[in-house]
Amino acid sequence: AYSGYTEGEFNFYLNDPGKWDAWIAGTGLDTGPLTDVIVPENFKMDGLATVKIVSEGRGKVPGETTGEITLETPGWFNITKLDEILEGLPPEWNQLQRSLTTLGLTALKRFDYEQGAGSLSLHEQEGGLELRFAGPYGTRELNLHLHDERNITLETNGGTEDQPRASARAVE
Question: What's the pTM?
Answer without folding.
Answer: 0.76
